[in-house]
Amino acid sequence: MNTIGNVTGIIANLVIVETEGTTAQNEICFIKHGGTRLMAEVIKVVGNKSFIQVFESTRGLKTGSEVEFMGHMLEVTLGPGILSKNFDGLQNDLNKMEGVFLKRGEYTEPLDMDKKFEYKPLAKEGDKVQAGSWLGEVRENWIPHKIMVPFKFAGEYTVKSLKKEGKYTPDETIAVLTDGDGKEHKVTMIQKWPVKVPIKAYKHKPRPFKIMETGIRVMDTLNPMAEGGTGFIPGPFGSGKTVLQHNLSKNAEADLVVIAACGERANEVVEIFTEFPELEDPRSGRKLMERTTIIANTSNMPVAAREASVYTAMTIAEYYRAMGLKVLLLADSTSRWAQALREMSNRMEELPGPDGFPMDLSAIIANFYARAGFVYLSNGESGSITFIGTVSPAGGNLKEPVTESTKKVARCFYALSQQRADSKRYPAIDPIESYSKYLEYPEISEYLNENISENWTDSVLKAKDILLRGKEAYEQINILGDDGVPMDYHIRYWKSELIDFVILQQDAFDKVDASSSLERQDYMLHKTLKITDFDFSFDSFEDVGPYFKRLINALKQMNYSEFDSDKFKKNEKELETMLKEQEKEEAKEEA
Amino acid sequence: MEKDTKAFQRVYTKLFQLTKATVSLSAKGIGYDELAIVDGRLAQVVKIMGDIVTLQIFGGTEGIATNAEVIFAGKPPSLKVGEDLAGRFFNAYGEPMEGGDIMGDEREIGGPSVNPVRRMQPSEFIPTGIAGIDLNNALVTGQKIPFFADPDQPYNQVMAMVALRAKADKIILAGMGLTRDDYLYFKNVFDNAGALDRIVGFINTTEDPPVERLLVPDMALSAAEYFAVEKNEKVLVLLTDMTLYADALSIVSNRMDQIPSKDSMPGSLYSDLARLYEKAVQFPDGGSITIIAVTTLSGGDITHAVPDNTGYITEGQLFLRKDSDIGKVIVDPFRSLSRLKQLVIGKKTREDHPQVMNAAVRLYADAANAKTKQENGFDLTDYDERSLKFARDYSEKLLAIDVNIDTDQMLETAYGLFSKYFKPAEVGIRQEFVDKFWEKEK
Ligand SMILES: Nc1ncnc2c1ncn2[C@@H]1O[C@H](COP(=O)(O)OP(=O)(O)OP(=O)(O)O)[C@@H](O)[C@H]1O
Ligand SMILES: [Mg+2]
Q: How many interface pairs between A and B have CB atoms less than 8 angstroms apart?
């Protein structure tokens, strides 16, 4: 019997409900309002008063309205058919909703229950299984989607019977399991899981030890993201967080991409809806949409559902990770989620922490990032969730609670700089401030040297050093003037500009330049470092810039050409000719 | 005291709490967000606690007595919509300023949002003739973008000019804290351009109570939705000035004892503004709502909570700045940005548009560096000298707001300036474009 209560107070989407029955923290409830039911979640209980946050507008709501408590937390439905869907933050299938405008109280089925899936068993009768064990497999688009023992099943079970290979709908029983007491449990292709609880159906979680190729040079080459790693992208508005995340979702080497559009613009989600069904995954040749799932809770959608959306996305990612897949999870923007927490906390008149955010913000963020990671499953296979969130700091100032809390937990820091964005040096990742802690992991550095080229990490550190020394030289030139510094300063500065223009800057909207393979990154980094190794000599500092600009131009044309194509080689040749000029100069001088 | 008048209206006459913006009374069966009339002034339910209802009075509570008459309307704020709106000006409550009635259907304002999967990707270029906008920051139907401007800049003039050139089916002006002079200015320009029948205005002037402004954008956007959804029209909404709208938000939240966030703005500022701006949309049936807003800055500070939150919501921003070198107001190419431009530039406009745009801005940045050097008393290189000359011409011929040419002419002008001061390698655009356009334009 579900607990029933009545509304006694309303302040925007915070509603107070009095009830004699039991209610639980994070329990889901529905308010009866006219002919509709408004979904809400319990966020605080004091005596017989439950404080609930409503996932909808409360316009017109009256005191006395009946509230039914459902006895479970906010859950998502997991099963074949999630892939390629567009959900809202509560996992309603947006495509199933009628009309142009969203209707309050309209909830739609996340999966298609009448769709038949080609199924084949993976386990055998008599097998000992546990939560997360693979019982069978269906084809979902191109993904071998595993049907697993539900994560809620505790302890060990024995497979009693399994359906034969064939076509079944998601809600048909495909296996019967017996528990230790001999009780039988039916398993279908679907299961439910509360989003705020991490799915731990894996054996162990090692430190990330390989990198996730993204095609973005400033990430892969300078600050690599690990598979199963975490990172964040803080940056003032307009500095390129969303473009960078979209670029990651297009080019990163992942089996699956889950995108949580959390409190950001609807048009940005539309861009994905429009482009992804057309664009190809550079690695598999399939359409990008075939590997993408979108959780869209845009800024005009109800604020409380915004908070839920990141958890919904994470839970879906965990589900696919348990199938042994490599999942990339992107959230834009985690600051909007934090703001949703702040709005609610203020309405409840809680004692505010810094900038009015809830006191436990750091802990909430840390728990969330901790759900990512590379895992070994109980059958020896592996899966991963690589998580990259954006942060939108107020006033672009990184000394604010969301950035600071995130910095404590995320291992990669991709700081976008206003100055770089203003001068259109995209992606505007600040090469000096940003870091990847993974570069310091011996296992990662070993992986890089083995998989890209010998001494790769040394080359990377060298490039970073040139960038830093270039920046120092530039500052000196600015203080002392062009002719107030030795020639060497100009050369140093321009060497760093060379790396900036050729390695760091990358045109996200150019077909060829948008993504760069590791092989190509290796080639270009070493090509560039060969130039910066060179001992240049110039008659006057005025000659340095123009000469380097010619080199940069040739190298950029290479970036714009298909790797190893005729055009690429032609530009490379031009570059070599320019370098020869300098060699001659040098020979002359020595003579 | 409680007595029934019309079917849903109940009248109360006992207030037990009065603040500057709110009154509280004991009442039953009241809906959240519902409207009421308190002593003849419009009010809205903002809090219900048991039997205690708190009302926010838009016109302020001055002179309201504890025995004031309170009549609940039984419905949230609404607007009558129909063709009849066209060519007319209304106050914040949606009442015609010249008196009379509106023929049409009654709609709740501040209604639900468009399902994102039912939106179309904006793809229609809005040429304005202003190169600082079309060349560097092209606008697209369904976009939302504010002017960031100091109060002394001619933002209302530029906005009126853009609105008239934009070829919209309807222009909806939402004036919040508009001076009477600016209100009359808008009326005049639209009238002189023979566009008055395409205009709908919702106006709160500096003479009206500030809290009334809170209704203005919702009124304007409801009217916009009517024309865009039911008539499939291209609607342009002008919101001026959103900083004054935000000020009204902060007045209310402070009076309701909410914990203020940065710059004494409410913690919900981002959501409050996003709710409005996200009404900008391209509908599948051809109708669209494009929002051009004004956010005035104080002392050019864009880190203030209002411009900062706005920047995180809108699809770019247009900065106006006075260029003292040429003595004209320009659209600043550094801080201005149209996020949707890549949907049209090089697609609806010539293929080399993106590269030309970026190259010119990069050279302009080089000039800015040269200028700093010059100001610090250092010698300039030949390149510095050339970039400074380029910057001046670029500012005069392309960035100034009095430019009115088509996009091809803008590109030609840019090549003209490139070849006058630079070699192709210094400009750094794709070789194929250099081959195709550089020599030709020379
Ligand atoms: N890699 C890039 N190449 C070219 N242009 C870019 C790139 N990154 C960003 N831009 C430009 O900057 C604009 C803003 O980028 P983006 O929308 O990603 O910013 P953001 O940091 O997400 O801002 P907000 O916080 O407001 O959402 C883009 O519309 C585009 O014009
Ligand atoms: Mg963004």
A: 202
